[in-house]
Write a structure and sequence with these properties.
alpha+beta; two-stranded antiparallel sheet
């Protein structure tokens, strides 16, 4: 079942607004060992990670970004459910299948037709505002 992203998004905005101080975390040796398994990581410090983007570019990620990631995970997974459906519409049909389904709000097509009634009401809402398809 799909989540109501508008409601969930507002809940997350409120949660983030309530946080007045994002504490610095320190990566343990176990954290560092797990993080070192990821591609592109060139250096792991106690509270930052350095990624190698190319031979000339890098990115430094502070530990607080990981707090963001942990807190936003539920919303990101809910959003992925929507994008997976649209991607399935796109790959199962022709190049315009997803666009056509969203713009017409057609719930009888492909994977959308297999959703529960609640999800069918929500499936296209992240991609539309009023009469405008985003």
């Amino acid at each position: 079942m799909l989540h109501d992203l508008d409601r969930l998004g507002k809940e997350f905005q409120n949660r983030f607004n309530e946080i007045k101080l994002w504490p610095e975390i320190k990566f343990t040796d176990a954290d560092k060992a797990e993080l070192s398994k990821l591609n592109s990581i060139s250096k792991i410090n106690d509270s930052t990670i350095q990624l190698k983007i190319s031979d000339t570019f890098h990115c430094i990620i502070p530990c607080q970004y990981f707090l963001y990631a942990v807190l936003i995970k539920e919303f990101a997974l809910a959003l992925k459910d929507y994008t997976d459906i649209v991607e399935t519409l796109r790959t199962d049909g022709n190049a315009n299948s997803a666009w056509d389904a969203i713009s017409s709000a057609d719930i009888s097509v492909g994977v959308v037709s297999t959703l529960d009634d609640y999800s069918k009401k929500l499936v296209y809402t992240p991609f539309k505002r009023g009469d405008c398809v985003m």
